[in-house]
Amino acid sequence: MSDHLDHLRARPNRATTPELQFVAPGVWALRNIFVNLFFVRQTPNAGPWVLVDAGLPGAAGRIRRAAESLFGPGARPEAILMTHGHFDHAGALETLAAHWDVPVYAHPLELPYLTGRSAYPPPDPTVGGGAMAWLSGLYPKHPYDVGSRAQALPADGTVPELPDWRWIFTPGHTPGHVAFFRESDGVLLAGDAFVTTQQESALAVWEQRQEVHGPPKYFTCDWDAARRSVERLARLQPRVAATGHGIAMRGQALLQELTELAQHFQERAVPARGRYLPDPAIADETGVRAVPPPVHNPRTPWLLGGLAATVGLGIGIWLQQRDTVRKRRRRYRRHSPHHLDQPATGYAADIDPFTPVDEPGGWFPGPQNL
Ligand SMILES: [Zn+2]
Ligand SMILES: [Zn+2]
Known about the structure:
single chain, 5-stranded mixed sheet, hydrolase activity, binds zinc ion, transmembrane, globular, 31% helix, 7-stranded mixed sheet, alpha/beta, NDM-1-like, Metallo-beta-lactamase, Chain A
């Protein structure tokens, strides 16, 4: 336990980072219990913006409120970009896309899961690593359906509404997974191609223990492709990586851990056994075509214990979130409409781990920039 405490003291964690966090100029992360989604502005201080990923089911109101706190009342994106369509990244997608009436962009190989045509390959609880993995058989895996709002990302690698960004094909975790990269300052939104917490472990997820890990094992359905994707992202030498799970990382720690992950992917990221080893799920632009047969789960006796622990954890998180939301609503009322301009909200103080000392005015946009 003291190792954990040392680690938590040394790196940002759930207790020391706000739920809505500045990542890089024009990029903010919102932590939705255990998954992240992102607000990305076309230019750092002004202009249109897009949402990247759409959080857990039921998160639409919270996402809209966060958007309004950043961009003002009634804020509406130009589009929603999807790294992939797992339930924790697309849970509020249908509601938000309909409410804002905006297009939803994803890779052509990911569209079947966003247009109701195919369910994902089944999750694999046999990969081990903790309660989040053991319970993965219970996670929703039905496709979402945003109908004709779903559109394929441009084949030339450009990103709609974000001229400074490129999308990078990073399959493996899902068949059509993509990351988004801004080359000018090395900012990477990696989705679940790799993540910055040990997503299989409920304890690590609760703490948001910050370290580079491979894609969440229980959902990854092609490990060869996942390895090549991590190698591709490591070659980009990102300076900031904000991933689907965990707190954004930057600088030397990021580069070193990502490089090591790419070099030792087999030992660090690939489970010793699992349904998608050695053979992957097979998918195409119509969805899943074939999956390997299920394997025996030696951890079944632990499942009920894990379930009880996780339900308890979930209730704890929910109660804390409810409390936070109530406090935040009170703050919104005090500082509306642009409460983030007000240092009294506490965000500016909380942002410390990502605040460069030489940046006049800090990372948050000042009133003059909104
Ligand atoms: Zn995922
Ligand atoms: Zn995820």
